[in-house]
Amino acid sequence: MSVEIPKCAIVFGGVTPPQGDVLDLRVHLGGTKEVSSFECVLQNWDKKYSPGSANEIKEGMDGHIDIGRGTNVPQIITCRVEKVEYLSSPTANYVRVSGRCWGERIFRRVVTKTYENKKGEEIVKDIIDSYVGLSHTRDGVELIENTDTTYTKLEYENTPVFDILKFIAETADKQGVIGYDFRVAPDGKFEFFPKNSKTSPVSLSEKIEVSSYRKDIHRVRNKIIVYGAAEKTKPEDKDAWTETLDIDDDGVNDWVSGTGTGTVSLDSSIKILGSYSIKHSNSTADYYSTLLLYLSNNIVNCNKYPILQFQIRKTTSFSDTCYIAIQDAWGNWAHRWFNVPADEKWHIIQIGVGKKNADNWQYDGDFDWSQINEIRWDCHFPGTGTGSFWIDNLFSGGRRWEATQEETGSPNN
Q: Are residues 250 and 376 in the same domain?
């Protein structure tokens, strides 16, 4: 019985080496949640594939490899060249080209994001679309299959894409059966499907004489994130917001009164820090005195700045009861009460904010702690009354100092 000899077709970028130049070709097909790789040795007579030639093979080239028997050999890997090594001897010259399939993109990126009440397939699709950039449809068919699992809350900070995909695959279920597989198919498409749902018409029984297994998953170490003390504030000058009524410097006051009976001014005589404090006065009797600060161009992410700190002073006409509220960019409010003696002395108030401190607040269900654009203070009178209170030294704090350095050439190649 005659069997056709194996054939291959290789493309690296715009370079198509003929089969006669291929001395050795090995393709390792990635199994469950792994990445395929390849290694190819080509004849390089007269520097055919060397730098400067018309057929130069470079790191970073995309390509594909087809291997099989017969006239039309099937594509088995969509790949990316990651290493080019030139080999020479007294009588011969060669080039070794190696790399991985497009699944290597899964290892390039990290994710900082929160998913709430999302199905497993929604999270996977978002990650593949937003961070990986692989197609997950083939001939109009969605390759990321639905799950029966809804995740209440998943929070990630600089988490590798691969780790998130692996977690979803290991925990999502379909009709009570837990476990999904994912892979990058030979045509470069990303597939996510329930375990044991794929079958092959090819039987390898009594056909395998020698086999080997290799697992080689690595990342390009081209990025470093350094974290420091949780001492970063917004603004960096902790007194800047109480030194002016117009913190955006756009000609419109951002500090305003929330009641028709009140007025707002800069006070240079009563202050705790810097040149001024913010003074709110009620000259007409009212039940409470309200001061507002609009942060339209200085939106605060309270998840990253989990401390709201200020100093407050009240005249003796007030009660001890105070109210503070913060508004998100969508008009939702979070609020809470606190007590400050009405003794005409400055008092430091430090309040925890953000998702980690949400239990200490009353808030609308859709409140977005990452988009705070307004702060409100209410100081109450025992009945009705007049008086003044002051705010100074206002800032958001508690964020870790952070610096990122990245060398972009490595992952691109």
A: yes
Label residue 117 by pLDDT band (50, 70, 90): very high
Looking at the domain assignment, is residue 226 inside a domain?
Answer: no
Residue 222 lies in a domain: no
Q: Which of 206, 208, 211, 216 is nearest to 39 (CA)?
A: 216
For residue 30, the enclosing domain spans: 7-102
Chain position carrying tokens 């953000």: 354
Using CA atoms, how far apart are residues 94 and 362, in angstroms rounded to an integer?
70
Measured CA to CA, the distance from residue 78 to residue 105 in angstroms comes to 12
> Cβ contacts of residue 14 below 8 Å, gap of 6+?
none
- 41: pLDDT confidence band, cut at 50, 70 and 90? very high
The full DSSP string for 213-238 is ----------EEEEE--S-EEESSST
DSSP state of 400: P
For residues 43 and 342, what is the distance between their CA atoms, to the nearest angstrom? 88
Token pair, residue 338, equals: 């606190």
Whether 170 and 187 map to the same domain: the answer is: yes
The verdict on residue 144 lying in a domain is yes
**161-218 pLDDT, tens per residue?**
999 999 999 999 999 999 999 989 999 999 999 998 887 777 767 667 777 666 555 5
Task: Please list the residues that pair with 290 across neighbouring strands.
Answer: 378
206-237 b/e (C-beta count within 10 Å ≥ 16 → b): eeeeeeeeeeeeeeeeebeeeeeeeebbbeee
> Please, what is the angle between helix 120-127 and helix 161-171, to 10°?
160
Both 252 and 128 in one domain: the answer is: no
Residues 292-331 have pLDDT tens digits of 999 988 999 999 999 999 999 999 999 999 999 999 999 9
- Does one domain contain both 262 and 343? yes
Query: pLDDT band at residue 348, thresholds of 50, 70 and 90?
Result: very high
Q: What CATH number should be reported for the domain holding residue 191?
A: 3.55.50.10
In a domain, 406, yes or no: no
Contact predicate 289/259, CB 8 Å: yes
Q: How many CA atoms lie within 13 A of 66 on its CB side?
A: 15
Q: Which of 68, 87, 102 is the last residue of a domain?
A: 102
Indicate whether 91 and 116 sit together in one domain: no
The whole model's pTM is what? 0.62
